Amino acid sequence: MTRSPHTPQSLQEIRSLRIAVVHPPDQDRVELLEHLKRIGCKVQVCWPDLDVELDAIDLVIMSVTPQTAAYHHAWLGDKNAPPIIPVVTYENPVVIEAVMQLNAFSVIPSPVRSFGVLTAIAVTLAQNKKHKSLQKFIHRAEQKAARQRTIELAKSIIMKTQHLSDDEAYQVLCLQARDNHALIETVADEIVKSGSIRH
After folding, report:
1. Where in the sequence is the signal peptide annotated (predicted)?
2. Which CATH number is associated with domain 9-128?
3. For residue range 163-186, what is the model confidence (pLDDT) as tens digits?
4. Which residues contact 40 (CB under 8 A, 6 or more apart)?
5. First to last CA, the chain
């Protein structure tokens, strides 16, 4: 039984990408633009810096040379900054350090050829998605740990001021949360801030 041909989801996503190409006007840029347009991407050219809103693009392909490595891009520090694929001509310490600072998941070597561009985009998108998922997981874990610390602190205050056991202090927290129609961590936070239990 033959399978019907279909376009993988990742390739469909790539075709709908809005890509900013931050690259000087040269043959590499010509090759890059032609290939991206063949893929079907929406391309916007910028130079020497990104001059589009960050929420208007999904990916940046940027020239990184010894000359541009020292250039400060203010948008790189933005939490909404899109992933970046550097186009590199040299492999020297300056360029390698610049690529590392960009947190790039892949690079496109110069001279630019059509081979490898699609793979670089696919790898970057996949790794960036994993990175964002990991960051969200870490953030949720940190929030959960912070809430648990607050509850433990509130229990210790109740235990000290009310002369109760750990379990009894937790029950007091639960009752306070129920009576005030609030989350237990909200009640715990109020107790920690005031240093006493509200009656």
Report:
1. none
2. 3.40.50.2300
3. 999 999 999 999 988 988 999 889
4. 14, 15, 16
5. 73
